[in-house]
Amino acid sequence: MSQVNSEVSSPVITVDGPSGSGKGTICKLLAAKLGWNLLDSGALYRLTALAAKHHGVAVDDEDALQVLAAHLDVQFVINEVEEELQVILEGELVTQELRLEETGELASIVATKPGVRTALLNRQREFAQLPGLIADGRDMGTVVFPQADLKVYLDASVEERANRRYKQLINKGLDASLEVILAELIKRDERDMQRAVAPLKPAEHALVLDSTSLTIDQVLELVLEAARHKGLR
Ligand code: DC
Hints:
Strand order of the largest sheet: 2-6-1-7-8
Oligomer: single chain
Structural class: alpha/beta
Bound molecules: 2'-deoxycytidine-5'-monophosphate
Shape: globular
Low-confidence stretches: 1-6
Largest sheet: 5 strands, parallel
Mean pLDDT: 94
Distance between the termini: 13 Å
């Protein structure tokens, strides 16, 4: 790997894309398949948003948000019984709250603040450890790991992404409205793509995949094929 950025000490595959494009699922599978580390960068923005909520910090108070982001007191613990990753923020279990739609929405607002993004930059880069890193986010290939070995941009039509989210919620026995989900996704896409700093867009030379009519296995195989091509397996 050509390493211009001395902080990047291991091979990196970045996967960026909009909400609901399936990148979370693909990144977990890739990390398991390759035996590499996984960075869920969205979780760091979600944790910053939750810390702000818990401390009563307004989402437009950039200075206070930056301090929170720089000092996130978070632990990731495997629950031995359910074999699930538990997230503890300032001593409080937030695993469920972290994944709520409203937390994603707050995270998307907090993520527009340049100070927050700067505060989280090194914490994200520290995940680049041997044998390798799969980095999931919006600006992994463009800003956080510009020297990554392979950059993937995973997309899908907004209707398909809304459908997938709708089915997930219904399968969990939860109430859901396709119309509301679609409207929220459109709003989130716009905020993530239009912000001034590190907007969501494909990195230069990224492998752009549209998963609208592909299965998870097909997407995984295409990424693994590209990784093989780069000598990453
Ligand atoms: O991937 P996610 O839904 O957990 O991300 C939540 C929000 O965090 C997303 O809408 C925008 C922000 N985010 C970001 O700005 N940059 C990243 N690398 C990851 C997430």
